[in-house]
Structure formats: C-alpha cells, structure tokens
Specification:
mainly beta, Immunoglobulin-like, 3 domains, 7-stranded mixed beta sheet
Length: 367
C-alpha cells in the first residue's frame, strides 16, 4: 500500500513538473488572414520562453481540411536552440523542413516555396522539446486559414438580367486564378427557376434545380437538351461552383436570365415583305410598297437585349411615328401600321439607333 502511495505521489510530482514546464512556453503563428498563401509563409511565428535555461526545440506543423478534419500535410523543422525570451522564426530560420504529403490535393505543387491549394484549413503548430533521441510535445496552437484565389471565378455569358431567344443557351464563365493552385479543377453548374417575390440567391439555395451538372472540366456548358426544358417567359438564376477534386473551394455570384416569350410578330398579310434596316445614310434604294396598310422591317443585332425607339420620319426629318421595341440578339422583325399620316409617292425613312449609336435605316414609299 505504501509503495502505491509513493507511486501516486511521484506521478503527481511529474505531472506538476510537466505542467510547470509547459507553462513556460508559447507559440504564436503569424499567418496572412486569407488569399494566396505559400508554404514558406506558414513558418512565420513567434516563440516565447520563460524557461531559465536554453533548450533544443523543433516545430511540428499539421494541416487539416476544415470540412472533414482529415490531415493533408505534416511537416517538421530542423532542431533549434530556444533561449529565454522571444524568438521570431520564419522559413529561413527553420529550414530544412521535411514535408509529408497525405492528400492528392497537394499533388499540384510540392515545391517548398509553392502555393497551398484553395480551401479552408486548420493549421496546428506544436513546439517539441528535443533531448537526444527523445522528444516531448510542449504546447500546440491551432488557427484557421482560408486560401482563396487572387481572381475569383466570374460568370461571363449570358450577361446578368439578359433576355435570351434560345431555350438552350451556352453558359460560360471565367475560371479563378492562378490556376496552379488547383490539383484537379472542375465545375458544377446550378440553374433554378426564380419564383415571384423571390431573390435569385434564394432561388438557387431553396428551389429544386432544373439543372445540376457537375464534374465539368471546360469553362462553358451548352444547356443540355436532355435536361428539364427552359420555358419561354420565365426567369432563371444560375451560378457555378469551383471544385478542387471533390472539395468546393469557390463560387461565383448568382446571375439571372429570362427566356423571351416570343420573338416574331404575327404578319397581317401573308405576302408581307420585311425590309432590312442597314447602316447607311440618305434614301438611296427606296423600297416601293403597293399595300398602304402596313410595312415590315427586320434588323439583325449582335448585342445583348436592349430597348430601342424606332422612328418613322419624312426625308425632311419630320417624325411621323415612334415605337419602342425590345431588340434581341439575332433577327428582329417588326410590323408598322401606316395610317392617314402617310401620303402616296412620298419617301419615308424607318430608323433604329443601336447600342453603338449607329443609325440603321431603310427608306420606302407606297403607291
């Protein structure tokens, strides 16, 4: 029984001595708050010792993935002498460093001066006391680190709030940079309908997606004909998730587009001719129409959807009629009614000014 008490007392004394020793040390990592991070930047730290005598130490570094807390890298520095007081360390102080790579996420760049991959990580620093072949962990300090690209991913086409003619649009985006931060970059595209009184962000977050396509290696996706069709007259929200292997590391903003209800007018006459609105001046090439009731015009636009005012005026510049029209990418067809404001054998001009401030016209007169 006495022997047992002696053992317990000895154990308590050892624990007390260890706690007293540990309390004499601290380690404070000095990491960048976020952004692009190099492995060499991980070693910026402040070591503090209140131990009265110098000791030999090393630093053990562990990086865990914040999503599943699995380690992806461990590293060990050379042995260093820590004197009483404060020691500022950096990569040149602790090198050579031995790295142990535990995840394919880090296969892209194993250069000691290379970049960390994108993602959210927990970085743990352990100060280790070294005594010959023996070692003892004194203290561990952990901190969170978010590695983000210098240039985040951005949606490209269709433009935000655009109106489309096609119900199978090409969706495209700009990848994040620099690309050497990725081991196996791929993308996930989400498209969801926006219901009345709903924000686009809520739509992609709460609504059942009508398209959710993953493992895309290109930076564009033609809306699949096999997916749920996009309906004319409805608004859709979309975004792109950037993944490194299977881990989501970045996401774009949420944009919207609408599929146009109808792009062609209903012609009143079966033999109605549509005259081309072209970039020209004057009234050369006057079109003669026989029927006074209406005239057709067409215009091919290379721009995104916009509103334009079409003028019908005399050659003297007097405006007879104005109509607001929605101009979409591709062919646009218009029908204008000709009332008693128009006189026979007199020349008139139809004029549409595009986004480049260029007048597109056609001239006509009727018999």
């Amino acid at each position: 029984m006495i022997q047992r008490y002696r053992y317990i007392i000895l154990l308590l004394l050892c624990i007390g001595a260890i706690n007293q020793l540990v309390a004499q040390f601290s380690i404070s990592p000095q990491l960048p708050p976020s952004g692009v991070v190099k492995k060499s930047q991980l070693w910026n730290a402040l070591l503090v010792s209140s131990n009265p005598t110098p000791i030999t130490v090393a630093i053990k570094l562990t990086i865990n993935n914040s999503l599943d807390n699995q380690p992806i890298l461990t590293a060990y520095t050379k042995n260093m002498v820590l004197f009483p007081g404060v020691l500022q360390v950096g990569y040149t102080t602790v090198t050579p460093v031995v790295y142990n790579y535990l995840s394919p996420t880090l296969n892209t760049d194993r250069d000691p001066n290379g970049f960390l991959p994108m993602g959210s990580f927990t970085i743990c620093y352990t100060l280790v006391k070294v005594d010959g072949d023996l070692s003892f962990e004194l203290i561990t300090e952990c901190t969170a680190l978010d590695v983000a690209p210098l240039s985040p991913p951005q949606l490209s086409y269709p433009p935000d709030k655009d109106t489309l003619i096609s119900s199978t649009p090409l969706l495209s985006w700009i990848p994040p940079a620099p690309t050497n931060m990725f081991n196996a970059v791929n993308y996930e595209v989400i498209v969801a309908e926006v219901f009345p009184n709903q924000t686009p962000i809520d739509a992609v977050k709460m609504n059942l997606p009508i398209l959710n396509r993953s493992s895309i290696t290109a930076t564009n996706l033609l809306y699949p004909s096999s997916a749920q069709p996009l309906e004319h007259g409805k608004t859709y929200a979309w975004k792109v998730l950037v993944k490194n292997n299977t881990q989501t590391v970045a996401t774009t903003d949420v944009w919207t587009f609408e599929v146009a209800k109808n792009t062609l007018p209903i012609a009143a006459l079966p033999d109605l001719i549509y005259y081309e609105l072209e970039k020209k001046t004057g009234t050369s090439g006057v079109n003669t129409i026989i029927n006074k009731g209406q005239i057709g015009a067409k215009f091919y636009s290379y721009d995104k959807t916009y509103e334009a005012t079409i003028l019908i005026k005399s050659v003297e510049g007097v405006i007879i009629k104005t109509e607001k029209k929605t101009i979409m990418y591709g062919n646009n067809f218009f029908v204008f009614q000709l009332d008693n404001s128009f006189s026979p054998n007199k020349t008139y001009v139809i004029e549409l000014t595009d986004l480049n401030k260029t007048a597109n016209i056609t001239a006509f007169q009727f018999k």
